[in-house]
Amino acid sequence: MSPTPQYVPPSPASERSALDTAASLSNRDLAARVANLEALVQAQATGAQTSPGRLIPPCAKVRGVLSTSDSGHVRFIPSTKFPGSNGSVSDPQQTTRRSIDLSDGPYPLGKKQTNLTRLLIDLPSRRHCKQLKDVYFECFATLFHVLHDPTFNEQYAEFEKNPESMPLSWLALLFAILGTSVVALGASNELLNDLSRKNTVTDQVAELSERYRKAAFKCLEADNYLWQQNITTLQALVILIYSINHSHGQTWTLLGMTFHIALSLGCHIDPSEFGLDVVRSEERRRCWAGIMMLYMIQNMSMGHLGPDPWNASEGVRMPLDLNDSDLIPGEYELLVVPSRATQMSYLLFKFRLYHISNEISSVVRNSSQPPVTLIERLDERIVNEQRSWHDKYSADSAAAPLPTYHEVHLYILQGYSHQLMLLLHNHSIRTSMAGTSQRRLSVAKALSSAKEILRIHAIFFIRSEFSSFGWYLRGICSFHAYHAAVSLIVVIAEHTWNDAFEDIIPLVQDCVARFEALTEVSIICNKAVPVLQSML
Predict the structure, then answer these.
(1) Phi/psi class of residue 15: alpha, beta or left (left: φ > 0; alpha: ψ in -120 to 50)?
(2) What is the pLDDT of residue 202?
(3) Does the pLDDT value for residue 433 go beyond 90?
(4) pTM listed for this prediction
(5) Using the 8-state DSSP alphabet, how is residue 163 labeled?
(6) pLDDT tens track for 143-177
(7) Dihedral of CA 86/91/96/98: which sign?
(8) Which of 336, 40, 12 is nearest to 174 (CA)?
(9) Burial environment of residue 341 by CB neighbours within 10 A (0 to 12, 13 to 18, 19 or more)
(10) Are 342 and 396 spatial neighbours (Cβ–Cβ below 8 Å)?
């Protein structure tokens, strides 16, 4: 007997805009969808077979199926939950009623006419568009790797040939990428003056990022993203939130909505259950991991304001530690097990650091003195993470010089880990008794980490090959350096002078000098300079 066919949604590369046909749902469309769902039910009833060579066999318990509309939108249809259903999919007619994409908009906002030409007008010129796209993949994609770069590049080539043929969700993704890439542009980049008439770099970046983000939301709205979505919709939203976070914007509401869109797409279930190929599986895992990371960042700054989104996950695995070139469309087997750093290594390492950061945030928010064993355990976890980075990245550096972007990743990880050390031991210093061994140890740890943070800040400031990551220097790197400088000054003020303090004042003075050089392009540095000068 031949194996039961797998029913999978089209990849983002095959999605096409259907502005007119998606405006209404004809009887023919409805009948086709019913037939498709009946086939899905039959497939589940007979038990889909998977070849032994598949990457991950399907789960014995079917949690649901993915239903795809003619317009390329996807909806996850969960299995019926009533007793005795044995995990079978709901009645096809009922499932159809639940899965109909309301693309004609009768509910809740009414039918909408879309003018694609007006949306495309918001794009920069072909040359500028490509330059901004390249900036994104050089500066941001390696740090927040949620896309499969070869797939996007194929789509971009199609876009250059025929922009009108691209799905609205993909245009939203492109605008999200453009709005993110302008954050990386510095004063020496001619793109800013070409695209904006504002006088200062900060104003130019703010204007352009806002322009392209607004355009992204126009495309999403035109695609009726509030009630019909696909993975490209989710990718656009995740990148938008990441971009807004780097501009110190508020994203709590948008993040919550994006999380629920991910649920509607079935991203909370591991894609191995849907029989998807390795590319589409990793796209889903990367989106889910990206959302979880954004939640962790949000929780660290605002606290846990609601239910933990991790509880919604039903066995979703972390993205594989592989390069995009290892993922081949249409393939279901992965034989590559790299020991060296990949395009995904940084994000996976950062994920583990964020878990530690959440624990440290809970400790720091508590005014009482934490147990010494807790301080030691968290300290040890950070040190173990630092060792794991060395092992991973040294596999590359032993054979050849470390690629620049891997070197940047390593410095960012080190800087963040020392920031966590500083938070942990500063809290220990504040809550422990003077003269105790724990206090002396925490002072030494805080001094060491603060100095290391200032060293990393100097590296990003001096090294020309890191100029593409100037946005990191102007933002979070300078914030960490400010925290380190203040911590060093406080340690000097509260303790008897000794030889260990000799190099502190010059280190802080050098930091202030760097901040002064960055005041025109960094809000953080502009505010930090007078504070530090008054403390010296």
Answers:
(1) beta
(2) 86
(3) no
(4) 0.82
(5) G
(6) 999 999 999 999 999 999 999 999 999 999 999 99
(7) negative
(8) 12
(9) buried
(10) no
